[in-house]
Q: What sequence folds into this?
């Protein structure tokens, strides 16, 4: 089962990582000033992850594939790791779709 892990960056901003059942990070959020905003970001991922049109498939400057997940308002709510192939990226999207809706939330800032 997947997990959302809430943590704090060195600049004190909050972020979350969505980890698949195997422990690999499949989505990383932006930084949030307030923890409540970070928690709302998680809820947005749970909802928007099921809509394929919310995934923006991209290619990094080094040629590797990745995706971003967007909210209804078009804001980016999470970014994937880099993948060496388009099929790897598509598997990452499938993993987010599978894991996000039921993922537990673990707050490491407590």
A:
């Amino acid at each position: 089962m997947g997990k959302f892990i809430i943590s704090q960056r060195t600049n004190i901003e909050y972020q979350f990582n969505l980890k698949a059942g195997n422990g690999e990070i499949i989505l990383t959020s932006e930084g949030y000033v307030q923890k409540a905003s970070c928690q709302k970001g998680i809820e947005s991922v749970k909802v928007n992850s099921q809509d394929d049109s919310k995934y923006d498939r991209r290619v990094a400057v080094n040629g590797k594939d990745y995706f971003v997940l967007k909210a209804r308002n078009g804001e980016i709510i999470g970014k994937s790791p880099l993948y060496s192939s388009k099929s790897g990226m598509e598997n990452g999207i499938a993993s987010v779709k599978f894991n996000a809706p039921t993922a537990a939330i673990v707050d490491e800032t407590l």
Remarks:
- The chain has a mean pLDDT of 97.
- The two ends are 22 Å apart (CA to CA).
- The helical segments are 35-48, 86-99.
